[in-house]
Amino acid sequence: MAERRDRAADGTPVARRTMLGMLGLGAAGLAAAPWLQRGWENVLGAASQVDPTGITGVLPNPGGFRYYSVVGSVPRKDATNYRLRVNGLVDHPGTYTLDELRALPQTRIVRDVQCTDGWRVADTPFTGVRLSDLLDAAGVRQDGTAVHFTCFDGVYTESLTLEQARRSDVMVALTMQDKPISHEHGGPVRLYVAPMYFYKSAKWLSGITVTDRVVPGYWEEYGYAVDGWLDGADTHGDAAAA
Fold first, then answer.
1. Alpha-carbon span 156 to 158, nearest angstrom
2. Which among 48, 148, 178, 194 could disulfide-bond with 209, CB atoms 3.0 to 4.6 Å apart, if both were Cys?
3. CATH fold of 16-222, please?
């Protein structure tokens, strides 16, 4: 993919806070104001649901994470109504409920989480189902070379090559920091791509579609790297889970 103007000179994706500012800084103050009397983590989690730009993520947060949403609000899902669809160039398309995902073999990965804004949360455990297991169950066809992800916010998308998707450190995550993934963090189910920047780990995951080519995701359309490898990531091999 060709370089875009909104990439840093060294090829690193431009910070998300800068991009969000470009997309609509003015709305952030009005959106966040009603929440400013609450504790910081509650502030950011709640304000992110009414902030159409996600600029609330630039505010300090003692928990280390920042909250982002590219839409004004996201519907809440739980075990009663969550569904994950697997389709595309597969022999056995299907749909998983939250309970069905929980019943599958689980893998635990402990890595640092890093955002393009520069913040990092060290030694963050995620537990879930390896994406490769879901792809194997679906039976990827010979012409399938990539995976496209959609989210129930109705807007966000991501993609990986099939080789990347089959890594042992890429999962459909059900817990983060040994707790069920909260709505603000993309729960009940999110993608977790351990060796890449956190924008590749799509929140509110609802669809996994095998495709014949990589379709750039939401942030890649704004100039982010399609392959968002972290410095030092094993980009050619694989990495064992914790």
1. 7
2. 148
3. Sulfite Oxidase; Chain A, domain 2 (3.90.420)
